[in-house]
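Format notes (please read before filing issues)

Several people have asked whether sequences and structure tokens are stored in separate files. They are not. Every record keeps both together, in the order shown below: the sequence lines, then the token lines. Line labels are part of the format and must not be stripped during preprocessing.
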Amino acid sequence: MRVVVPFSASEPKTRLSDVLAPDERRAFARAMLADVLAALDSTDADPTVLATAPVDCTVPVTVDDRPLTEAVDARLPSDPDDDPVAVVMADLALATPGALERLFDADGDVVLAPGRGGGTNALVSRHPEFAVDYHGVSVRDHREAAARIGADLGVVDSFRLATDVDEAPDLVEVLLHGEGEAAAWLREAGFSLSTTGGRVDVRRSSGGS
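Then the structure lines:
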């Protein structure tokens, strides 16, 4: 399975600005990317990182600074004889080989792995007329796009793939369930879990880097 991993290399994760400085956001984003690539490495995937700027990593990198929708669309199948292409976002710090294999093996001309809040965290396209649209409520838009072209739609319901990391509360899930570089980076930076009023949150020690 050919896999495209979009990655914002210059100014990633701006919604974490309230808890991470710019250089920390870049480092944390690279840690999450490393976790995604490590999970893919344990599958039969053939991944390429689609980055907005050059980045060092363990797989080939294609630089494309166009908006996400246009950059991804250019890599999807455009001919019935083309091989299927999966798109896996670089901030899925909890992704596992098993969760990814479920996505790759699922039936459907188009297979979606919804994210929380209406996003599309991963997908597989086997249909030459399918096009992505990452603006707005993308999982709804992708369902509608598949229906318009008469594509069979598959959906993978996976906590591991539904959990993307965009905002400070998302760090709770990484600290609770992550076992890779992203979780280790957060702990080294001084982040830990805090329980207040029956809810779990994150706090950062003053000694964090």
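For reference, the curators noted about this record: Residues 174 and 183 are 6 Å apart (CA to CA). The domain at 2-167 is CATH 3.90.550.10 (Spore Coat Polysaccharide Biosynthesis Protein SpsA; Chain A).
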